[in-house]
Amino acid sequence: MENVHLAVEDEDLYSGYNDFNSTFFTEELENDIGFQQALRTSQGRRPLMTAKLPGTAIGGRPLASSFGSRVPLASSAGRPVTGAVQEGAARPMTSIRAAGYTSTMMRGSTLDTLGQHRGPAPPLEGKNEDAPEEKIKIMEKKVNDLIEESCMAYSSGTSQLALEKAKEARRKEQALVRQREQSGTADHINLDLTYSVLLNLANQYEHNEMYPEALNTYQVIVKNKMFNNPGRLKVNMGNIYFQQKNYPKAIKFYRMALDQISNAHKEMRIKIMQNIGVVFLRMGQYSDAITSFEHIMRESPNITTGYNLVLCNYATGDREGMKKAFQMLISVPLGIDDEDKYIPATDDSSTNMVIDAIKNDKLYQMERDKKAQAEKYIMTAAKLIAPAIETSFASGFDWCVDMVKASQYVELANDLEINKAITYLRQKDFNQAVETLKTFEKKDSRVKSVAATNLSFIYFLEKDYDQADRYADLAMNANRYNPAALVNKGNTVFVKQDYEKAAEFFKEALKNDSSCTEGLYNLGLTYKRLNRLEDALDCFLKLNAILRNSDQVMCQIADLYEQLGDLQQAIEWLMQVISVTPTDPHILAKLGKLHNDEGEKSQALHYYSESFRYFPSNINVITWLGAYYLDTQFCENAIQYFERATLIQPTQVKWQLMVASCYRRSGNYQKALETYQNIHRKFPDNVECLRFLVRLSTDMGLKEVQDYATKLKKAEKTKEIQEQRVKSGRESSSRGRRGSREGSAGVSTPVLTSPMKSSITGTFIFLTSAVGASVSGLLEQADKSSAHCG
Question: Where are stretches of biased composition, namely Basic and acidic residues (predicted)?
Answer without folding.
Answer: 719-734
